[in-house]
Design goal:
The complex is a heterotrimer of chains A (515), B (329) and C (351).
Chain A lengths: L19 E12 L2 E12 L2 E6 L6 H9 L6 E6 L2 E2 L5 H7 L1 E4 L11 H6 L13 H15 L14 H14 L4 E5 L7 H16 L3 E5 L3 H7 L2 E6 L2 E7 L5 H9 L17 E10 L3 E9 L3 E6 L5 H9 L6 E6 L2 E2 L5 H7 L1 E4 L3 H5 L6 H5 L15 H14 L16 H13 L5 E5 L7 H16 L3 E5 L3 H7 L2 E6 L2 E7 L5 H9 L6
Parallel strand pairs in A: 3-8, 3-9, 6-7, 7-8, 13-18, 13-19, 16-17, 17-18
Antiparallel strand pairs in A: 1-2, 1-4, 4-5, 9-10, 11-12, 11-14, 14-15, 19-20
Helix pairs in contact in A: 4-5
Chain B lengths: L1 H8 L2 H18 L6 H26 L7 H18 L5 H26 L3 H20 L4 E2 L5 H5 L4 E2 L2 E2 H19 L1 H11 L1 H6 L4 H26 L2 E2 L7 H11 L11 H20 L6 H32 L4
Antiparallel strand pairs in B: 1-4, 2-3
Helix pairs in contact in B: 2-13, 3-8, 3-11, 3-12, 3-13, 4-5, 4-6, 4-11, 5-6, 5-11, 8-9, 9-11, 12-13, 12-14
Chain C lengths: L14 H7 L1 H19 L6 H26 L7 H18 L4 H25 L4 H20 L9 H8 L10 H18 L1 H11 L1 H6 L4 H27 L10 H11 L11 H20 L4 H39 L10
Classes of the chains: A alpha/beta (515), B mainly alpha (329), C mainly alpha (351).
Chain lengths: 515, 329, 351
């Protein structure tokens, strides 16, 4: 199936003294008939931050898993520091000097921070016993180098994702990592935490490490990275020096076609008030949230991670409870803390975490799509399989979900198609209000545009939409009104015309001018 | 200073406290509870459960469980009796070794099935509990070996004392100390905690999960074997029904002693204290003339209380951690 | 996190292939096979008394297996079922002996015990949020202990003879016990609930992902609470049944039953990880173990061997899927290698 590819060298400029830390050429990996990677090629030099971009399904995560030793490639030339390597397990990858920081770091919650860093290779004293004092001291040194104070003796459970990533990086340094792979590291971080992470990354680069940075966020890629490799459809497409290239050029390579406006929200007639939120408060999370959403309107909730936007959305939908205030839908008070009441009243909720909350990964596409229709498909309390399948076929077709068969588990779909299934599931309930939380996170550019077009279309048909989003371009493009939240309160509201990246960002970070 | 703080926060302390309280209350009601003979009986009764609890703790810390220990104990105990019957002159140390090897083999069967089949240990050991018991019943039939059939020196292990401690109890204490040190200060021991805390992360990070879990089951089996040999020394008779229902008491002891059923936390010392607590309850009931029928029910209440406390503590910790999260950056 | 490590493309079969090749079908084929072999090789098996004896023995397991299947599909477990049966039996005995109530009253009051026990389990698991494995290990001890406290080690035996005879009576000349009608109704009810109602659909979702289920409006806690009431009530019904069948009330009626039930349920295709399984499969599993045990007993195989058989069946039923998955993966890899190497490398031809 795989043949040795005849590629041009991926080095776009003169390879001066820059030593190549990692070089992968022509890697391929298939699972049965599914070709996950056809031509994985990338070169990371010492002392550079190298971005890897591509749509979902482009093969990025397969490539990363090959680097991490989780997958054994079917073919390919893989070298670390000039030496050919063939990993058989994640341990081999670590020994060779590759460390991967995942989006959701996995630490051992019951072990201390220091032990998390040194598990499996704890320092020992002369008698052969683990030397806890030494372990603690070394951990402290690592954190000092990184410039982040974390108590080595505290148990890892309950740490923020940002802190967990720092610990993972500390682990990588202690392993003498030569290449640090960061897989979508900023997805769950607030602006300040992102800056802290970038500082650490630049620091490591200047000390000679090679960093591979995978991200969907172009602002970050262009701010942080020295070179960019583009992949599409499982293949290496090209590599560029960041300074010499622009975002549209990169996007064009990723998508293979020119893209017009990415975020087309059409003007729609705004109708009556659908949702009225009054004084919504939850101690320690958000307070005094008051706003309205009208039919045909898209209201964006912008702000930093941790500002409380998702929490407000969840409270409105009933997943979480609130301590004071009220929610009214089309004039009728909505029973708090009851998702079933919200659904019956006509609210749909596309959650932030697609895999854990939006879908049941092990169930089929059809079953997922009709999960919200359980009650309505039933006659005399009984469901017929035939009507279920008919409904599933109908809705997946309407949203153009690409799948070979409805009976495949939804885990086999790409991120974009998975999101379409989630949307199908909610649209089938014919909601009056649709809440979408980070609707295009982790989705390829092409499907992103489809989702935006769909949301715009829904608004045009009179549905009210609340959109929680951390992507400013998306917020500015799609929203009729922008509500900026900051530390649990709505700090500002902007109309479509008035909103700019600067004033939204400013409202989101208002009181953070710390010493 | 931090070490002391950690000590107080650990679960072993409340359990030890409960134990002390129980002893005090019982001896107030019945002063003879603290007589030398009574104390000796307490220690003897606790010995077997302590060793079993240590073994079970190892398994539970890795997020598994072994429900077959009762059957394993029965097999080894009966085997010990048979050995003495067939070879009356067999040296006693050899018997111990044979018993532990036998137990280790049975533990290895469990461990192999759990790691190879990737099926929850609950189900596997439920099955092997049946299978081992069936093997024992068909082997033993209605035969029983009595303590009189064993060499006198063997039975003496449970009677003679060394500085006031029965010899078999000293064995138990040594076992607890050795395993506890191993779990705190040896990399392989810490790996067990990691495996129980986040199994997927452990695999990802290169910890050799299969050999470690297998080793935990083998160690538990060997310790159960040791307990089986000691059982034959301590008790009057061994037969087809020996060890039935023990697994419940042992799991109770371990859980009460602070080892979370979901793995990753707890100490072997805590489990041992839990074992002492549980066997003291039985003696307490007799000493205070409470109906012995209450014992099962009390064991049930203890298990439920232990899990409840675990939950409350972890919820409180989570809240504390979240509050302390708020730093200015 | 484990998605990172899984590489298989998962397809759920549908339609006829699923029916003919799925786990349920395999159990049914095995059952038929065992019945055929036993009819020819075991004396008396193919006789008129078989059906009656077999069913009477299997009824308690069959009954409890129904709610247990739902509990396991929802990713929980209930180990206290046998103890609930025992407690019910003890309460029934004491009430009958000491309270002077009418037997009907006594039976209803005894079944109420199951409701209370189930609610207790349900409360600890769904409201307090404790893990069901640990809780039901605790209540297994607690309920059995309470049974001992209630009735001590005595037994109560003087139940009305008519009831004992009714429980053992058969339908005409068929040999099928009359109570089977009741059992079939219970099976039908659970089958309908699981396979044809919104609640059942919700259970499958919930068994895979509690969070995703909550997001579609499924009230996870409420659903699970009712499932534990289900196991509680059915267990106490079985407790009553056993008491009347044995004409004796005692604290150890039904000891060890939880293992047979779980073994049968898992053998019948319900996954211990939740989210999968069917009622027909479970019925098949119960009958398979029942028929096998009965046939072996009839063939004078010693009782102890039967225990080994049950244990082995349990182990095989959970190990087999892993083994077949492993074997399939090996064959697939072998096929891939063969394709990559082309015909230049002679090698074994994979099936």
């Amino acid at each position: 199936m795989a043949t040795e590819p005849q590629n041009d060298s991926p080095v776009a400029t003169n390879a001066v003294d820059a030593e190549v830390a990692l070089s992968l050429r022509g890697a391929s990996k298939s699972f049965g008939p599914v070709v996950a990677l056809a031509d994985g090629t990338i070169e990371v030099r010492h002392g550079e931050i190298h971005a890897l971009v591509g749509e979902n399904g482009a093969g990025k995560s397969t490539l990363v898993k090959i680097l991490a030793g989780l997958y054994i490639p079917d073919a390919g030339d893989f070298r670390i520091g000039g030496q050919t390597v063939a990993f058989k397990s994640p341990a081999d990858s670590k020994t060779a000097g590759i460390s991967v920081i995942y989006q959701e770091p996995t630490l051992f919650p019951d072990l201390t921070v220091a032990e998390n860093i040194f598990i499996g290779r704890q320092p020992r004293n002369r008698v052969g016993f683990i030397d806890r004092g030494e372990m603690r001291a070394r951990a402290r040194d690592l954190f000092t180098t990184l410039g982040v104070p974390i108590d080595p003796d505290r148990v890892a459970a309950g740490l923020s994702i940002a802190d967990q990533q720092i610990i993972e990086i500390a682990k990588a340094i202690s392993l003498d990592a030569k290449v640090l792979v960061m897989d979508e590291p900023t997805a769950a971080l607030s602006g300040i935490e992102v800056e802290r992470l970038f500082g650490v990354a630049r620091n490591l680069r200047d000390k000679g490490a090679g960093i591979l940075f995978i991200s969907h966020r172009f602002e970050e890629v262009f701010a942080l990275c020295d070179r960019i490799t583009v992949m599409r459809d499982g293949r290496y497409i090209g590599v560029h020096t960041t300074a010499d290239v622009t975002v549209p050029e990169i996007v064009k390579e990723m998508v293979g076609r020119e893209l017009g406006a990415l975020f087309p929200k059409e003007v729609a007639p705004i109708g009556a008030t659908v949702l009225a939120v009054e004084g919504l408060t939850r101690a320690g999370v958000f307070s005094d949230i008051t706003f309205e959403v009208r039919a045909g309107e898209i209201v964006a909730l912008a702000g930093l991670v941790g500002a409380g936007r998702t929490e407000v959305a969840r409270a409105i939908f009933g997943i979480d409870k609130y301590d004071a205030g009220s929610v009214t839908l089309n004039g009728r008070a909505l029973k708090p803390h009851s998702p079933i009441a919200a659904i019956t009243a006509g609210i749909g909720f596309v959650p932030e975490d697609r895999r854990q909350q939006g879908l049941v990964m092990e169930l089929s596409v059809a079953k997922n799509a009709t999960l919200t229709l359980r009650e309505s498909l039933a006659r005399f309390g009984l469901i017929s399989g035939k009507r279920e399948r008919a409904a599933a076929t109908d809705w997946t077709a309407r949203l153009q979900v690409k799948t070979s068969s409805q009976d495949y588990a939804v885990s086999t779909l790409s991120g974009g198609n998975q999101q379409k299934v989630v949307l199908a599931k909610w649209l089938a309930t014919e909601p009056k209000l649709l809440i979408v939380d980070e609707p295009t996170r982790g989705i390829d550019v092409g499907t992103k545009a489809e989702v935006h077009r769909l949301l715009s279309d829904l608004a045009g048909r009179g549905i009210a939409i609340i959109m929680v989003s951390s992507e400013l371009p998306e917020v500015l493009g799609m929203a009729d009104r922008v509500l900026v939240m900051h530390e649990g309160r709505i700090s500002e509201e902007f109309s479509r015309e008035a909103a700019t990246a600067e004033n939204v960002m400013h409202a989101a970070t208002a009181a953070r001018e710390v010493a | 200073m931090t070490t002391a703080l950690h000590f107080f926060r650990a679960r072993g302390v409340p359990v030890a406290g409960a134990l002390v309280a129980l002893i005090i209350v019982t001896s107030i009601v019945n002063p003879r509870f603290l007589s030398p003979q009574s104390v000796k009986d307490l220690m003897l009764n606790a010995t077997i459960v302590i060793i079993l609890a240590v073994g079970q703790a190892l398994v539970i810390i890795t997020r598994n469980v072994d429900l077959s220990i009762g059957s394993i104990l029965g097999l080894v105990a009966f085997g010990t009796g048979s050995l003495f019957n067939a070879f009356p002159g067999v040296p006693i140390p050899l018997v111990f070794v044979a018993g532990m090897i036998f137990g280790a083999l049975l533990g290895a069967i469990n461990g192999f099935l759990v790691t190879a089949a990737k099926v929850p240990a609950l189900v596997i050991t439920l099955g092997t509990m049946y299978i081992f018991r069936g093997v024992l019943t068909s082997w033993a039939g209605s035969k029983q070996y009595f303590s009189g059939d064993n060499p006198k020196e063997f039975g003496a292990l449970s009677v003679d004392t060394f500085f006031g401690f029965p010899i078999i109890t000293l064995v138990a204490i040594v076992v607890v100390a050795a395993v506890a040190l191993y779990m705190q200060y040896m990399r392989a021991g810490r790996d067990l905690y990691a495996i129980g805390s986040a199994p997927d992360a452990a695999k990802l990070f290169g910890i050799r999960v299969t050999p470690r879990v297998l080793a935990a089951f083998i160690a538990s089996g060997a310790l159960t074997g040791l307990a089986g040999v000691l059982y034959t020394s301590r008790y009057n008779s061994v037969g087809a029904l020996t060890g039935t229902g023990l697994e419940l008491d042992v799991v109770a002891a371990v859980v009460v002693g602070g080892v979370a059923i979901s793995g990753g936390t707890g100490t072997v010392v805590g489990a041992a204290i839990g074992a002492v607590l549980l066997s003291t309850i039985t003696s307490s009931l007799t000493a205070t003339r409470v109906d012995k029928f209450w014992q099962q029910a009390i064991v049930g209440v203890l298990i439920l209380s232990a899990i409840l406390i675990d939950r409350i503590v972890s919820l409180r910790n989570a809240k504390k951690l979240r509050v302390s999260e708020a730093r200015d950056v | 996190m484990s998605e990172i490590l899984s590489t298989a493309v998962v397809k759920q079969r549908s339609g006829l292939p699923k029916r003919l090749l799925g786990h349920d079908a395999i159990i049914i084929y095995t059952l038929i096979l065992v019945i055929i072999i036993a009819s020819f090789t075991v004396k008396f098996f193919a006789g008129p008394l078989t059906v009656g004896f077999l069913l009477i023995q299997v009824i308690p397991i069959l009954l409890i297996a129904m709610p247990m299947a739902l509990v396991i599909i929802s990713e929980e477990i209930d180990l206290s079922v046998a103890s609930i049966a025992g407690l019910t039996s003890a309460v029934m005995g004491v009430l009958w002996r000491d309270s002077g109530w009418d037997i009907g009253f006594v039976i209803v009051a005894s079944i109420f015990v199951g409701v209370i026990c189930g609610a207790f389990n349900g409360f600890l698991i769904t409201v307090v949020g404790l893990p069901s494995l640990a809780v039901t290990i605790g209540t297994l001890a607690l309920f059995r202990g309470l049974a001992l406290v209630v009735i001590g080690d005595q037994k109560v035996a003087n139940f009305p003879k008519e009831l004992n005879q009714f429980v053992l009576s058969k339908i005409g000349a068929t040999g099928i016990p009359v109570v089977m009608i009741f059992v079939v109704v219970i099976i039908a009810i659970f089958a309908i609930i699981l396979h044809f109602t919104p609640f059942g659909r919700g259970l499958y979702a919930l068994g895979h992902s509690k969070e995703a289920a909550a997001f579609v409006g499924i009230r996870v806690g409420v659903a699970k609470f009712w499932l534990f009431i289900g196991t509680g009530v059915v267990s106490s019904i079985v407790g009553v049944f056993l008491t009347l069948r044995l004409a004796s009330a005692g604290p150890d009626n039904g000891t060890g039953m939880e293992l047979s039930v779980i073994a049968a349920v898992l053998l019948g295709g319900v996954s211990i990880f939740g989210g999968r399984g069917t009622i027909p499969g479970v019925v098949g599993g119960v009958l398979l173990i029942g028929v096998l045990t009965y046939a072996l007993r009839l063939a004078k195989v010693p009782e102890t061997a039967l225990i080994i058989v049950t244990g082995s069946l349990l182990v095989i039923s959970v190990v087999a899927p892993s083994v077949t998955a492993w074997a399939r993966e090996r064959m697939r890899l072998a096929r891939l290698h063969k394709e990559v190497q082309g015909s230049s490398t002679p090698g074994p031809i994979s099936a």
